[in-house]
Amino acid sequence: MSRRGILLPLLGCLLLSLGCAAAHAPPKKDYSAFRAADPRSILVVPVVNNTNNVEAPSLFLSTLSIPVGERGYYVFPVNMVKRVLEDEGLSDADLVHMADPRRLCNLFGADAVLYVSIEAWTAQYLILDTSVTVEFDYVMKDGKTGDTIWKEHRRVVNSSAGQSRGSGNPFVDLVAMAVVAAVAKAAPDYMPLARQANNGVIHTLPPGPHSTRYRTDELSPK
Amino acid sequence: MTARRPSFLLLAAFAAAAAGCAPKTAYLWGDYDSALYDHYRYPQDTERYVERLGQIVQKAEVEKDKVPPGLYAEYGYALFEAGRLDEAIAYYGKEREQWEESRVFMDKMIRNTGRLKENRPGPAPAGGEK
Q1: In Å, how far from its chain's centre is CA B117?
Q2: Which of A42, A50, A155, B46 counts the highest number of beta carbons within 10 A?
Q3: What domains lie within chain B, and their CATH numbers?
Q4: A-contacting residues in B 34-63 (Cβ below 8 Å)
Q5: Of A61, A55, A52, the residue nearest A198 (C-alpha)
Q6: A143 and A100 Cβ atoms separated by less than 8 Å
Q7: pTM of the entire structure?
Q8: What is the pLDDT of residues A100-157, one digit of tens each?
Q9: ipTM score above 0.90
Q10: Would A147 be classed as within a structural domain?
Q11: Shortest Cα distance from B129 to chain A (angstroms)?
């Protein structure tokens, strides 16, 4: 009896920890190209806009430096880079994205270029619900070879009606409550959603050279 | 009532875990992102932009290794656009000193700004390495 009394909670703990481990395990991705390139510095270039919202690209550009810098990479000053590229005749983000990444890196002395395009930046107004959607494509290219060394895609949808109902999962509700401030009927604020997307995506990058966790999460060779 | 308590406890535990996970940033970014955001939203208000970046630099500089990458340069460029070339060069120099990754770019900017300064003292249009 007493043995079972100990065993059951133990088993429970084990299951819990297994569940946690599974939840925290990053999705399997091939980082060999990224690790081979091993960039120290990242040039964030102006954002390509595939939506009708003219303001979106420059507003979104302002949210990229912090997550990249905090991840442990040297991030070039985004506004200065934007202006210098304009002086170089690359005033249009589409032109920048079409330019040779090796040329761009050479111009700034960068190791890699981060290209982001906005695929969605919309608000939908219904009677009881405002739904805000942002969606981005992220591609990083190596400055030496010009090859793609990492890419991600992220879509974040925030609906005001969805939050008031609650999901049944207290953690999801907590997160949702934190995000609900993002939705204002008069002027939807896309920025918290954009930050949320960036934070999630940039965390899939291995920690950079300025991070204390640089090279600590590398898998042992197979 | 008693059945509710575990869920409260769970909630509290999650909240505590979330607070523990709350990122402590490596650098003092201040409101760098909002300063940029407002600069794009109200591009005519350049004075305010320069002032805000200056305040962020000032606050971050209290701890030298907490100055974010690119901040000195961004401020330097804002000064440059305001025609304050000497100060711009000084901040490009600070960026260069703090981040070896910025050397190629900062060397070019320092050289170009120096050249502009010789050719025409006072406010100058934006100019990059040709």
Answers
A1: 24
A2: A42
A3: 32-119 (1.25.40.10)
A4: 34, 36-37, 39-41
A5: A61
A6: no
A7: 0.77
A8: 999 999 999 999 999 999 999 998 877 667 789 999 999 999 999 999 999 999 999 9
A9: no
A10: yes
A11: 8
